[in-house]
Design a protein that fits this description.
- The protein is α+β, with helices and mostly antiparallel strands and about 400 residues long.
- The chain has eight helices and 28 strands.
- Strands 7-4-6-5-9-8 form a six-stranded mixed β-sheet, with no helix packed on it. Strands 16-13-17-21-20-18 form a six-stranded mixed β-sheet, with helices on both faces. Strands 19, 22, 24, 25, 26 and 28 form a six-stranded mixed β-sheet that branches.
- α1 packs parallel to α6 and α4 crosses α5.
- The structure holds adenosine monophosphate and magnesium ion.
Length: about 400
């Protein structure tokens, strides 16, 4: 049995990020950068007006109100650069380049049109006011998106802004889910009182998609050596990561450990000191194929998925190791107790409390209690050796959804 941190170290030590290739920036959502994205020019590329108004020389309006002659107009996108002599100004619009002779922009609300070519500036203005300076957001050549960053909506926008239309990103792992159990029926089937509908399969397929790693394949097999072996071989053929649920413990019908050995897998750990989720394993096949054996009970599946399998998908995709398993911290809304002999994962729901967000424990009847799981947002982590955490104390929280 390994502790959860050793389990993660074993995963990182056994796999390497998938190769990278060039990909269109707008087809790269959820991909991780293998090369940084740099600014191709200063942003903004010139001094720009932040307002609709008048580009002036601040000295001309030091004793405002002051009447200035309007000698031109610069809409956004214009290349016009009218010269200003003392007493002159230019009508300007948001996003337009500020002429070299002006050093401030007076917003239109602080002016009064006086005649066709005259405007009254109502109060003085300091130099630089309402001007976005060239390069104030970023300088040409600066790293805007680091290697290992994930492409999300703002990253897509940054790529667009600097004309970086092809990115070098890592491939994303292809995933197959195999659910095992003689008692399992398809969700659309009638289930006898000796049977359960397979909820782990659809849950994992959905969780994988929620985190940008879909679409995953899913097959369900009974507790039968030959069928499991065939399913495993097929899955390993077509995917980088295989998640198996059920049959991973040490009972007579827990065939997964034996059968994955038969399929040529090397088991790196079997048994993790955590609750729920103790009987789980991680194995590799050949170079870089990963296999996670997760328990059958739904809440144990979720802990195994979020502690190890999902972080491994991120790692394989080129996510920096430090970002693969991000934890949040929240105060506990009400106290919790555990047996303290191993690390505990307790269902938690995020709520708005007086001082901000807090996590509220969600009562449940054990790791089969999927219904309680559907009321939670993630897991409260109680370290080994800690048997009670009082209300108000801050706890580690593993969110199930992207925050
Ligand atoms: P096992 O780890 O195979 O002993 O399964 C533990 C418990 O999880 C048993 O009660 C199973 O019926 C249940 N279980 C296993 N696989 C699934 C599944 N795919 N969907 C729902 N429940 C499952
Ligand atoms: Mg079973």
């Amino acid at each position: 049995m390994v502790d959860p941190e050793h389990a993660w170290r074993a995963i990182v030590a056994s796999v390497t990020p998938l190769p990278s290739a060039l990909r269109a920036y707008d087809q790269s959502l959820f991909h991780y950068l293998a090369q940084p994205v740099l600014a191709d020019r200063d942003i903004p590329a010139a001094d720009r007006s932040a307002m609709d108004g008048y580009a002036v020389r601040a000295d001309d309006v030091a004793a405002a109100p002051a009447v200035l002659r309007v000698v031109g107009e610069i809409p956004a996108g214009s290349t016009a650069q009218p010269a200003l002599t003392p007493g002159e100004c230019v009508r300007i619009f948001t996003g337009a380049n500020v002429p070299a002779d002006a050093d401030a922009v007076v917003m239109v609300e602080d002016t009064e049109a006086t005649a066709d070519d005259r405007v009254t500036i109502l109060s003085p203005i300091s130099r630089g006011r309402n001007i976005l300076r060239r390069g104030e957001n970023t300088r040409q050549g600066a790293v805007l998106l680091q290697q290992g960053a994930v492409i999300d909506a703002t990253a897509v926008a940054v790529c667009a802004a600097v004309g970086c239309v092809e990115l070098r990103v890592h491939a994303r792992p292809r995933v197959t889910v195999i659910t095992t159990g003689a008692e399992l029926r398809q969700p659309a089937e009638r289930a006898g009182i000796h049977e359960v509908r397979d909820s782990n399969g659809p849950m994992l397929v959905a969780a994988i998609a929620e985190h940008g790693f879909g679409p995953a394949d899913w097959v369900c097999v009974p507790d039968d050596r030959a069928e499991l072996l065939t399913a495993l071989r097929q899955a390993l053929d077509g995917s980088d990561v295989v998640l198996v649920t059920g049959g991973v413990s040490v009972g007579k019908y827990d065939l997964v450990p034996d059968v994955i050995r038969e399929a040529g897998a090397t088991i790196h750990y079997h048994g993790v000191a955590m609750k729920p989720g103790k009987p789980q394993l991680f194995a590799t096949v050949g170079s870089n194929r990963c296999l996670f054996g997760l328990p059958g009970n739904p809440l144990a599946v979720l802990t195994g998925f979020h502690e190890f399998a999902l972080p491994a998908l991120r790692y394989l995709s080129g996510c920096l190791e430090a970002d693969c398993r991000r934890l949040l911290r929240f105060p506990l809304l009400s106290g919790v107790t555990t047996k303290g002999r191993q690390r505990h994962y307790l269902l938690g729901r995020l709520v708005h409390a007086a001082g901000g967000m807090a996590v509220e424990p969600v009562p449940n009847a054990g790791s089969a209690d999927l219904v309680a799981g559907s009321k939670a947002d993630g897991m409260i982590i109680v370290p080994v050796g800690v048997s009670s955490v009082p209300a108000g104390a801050c706890v580690d929280f593993r969110p199930w959804r992207l925050l």
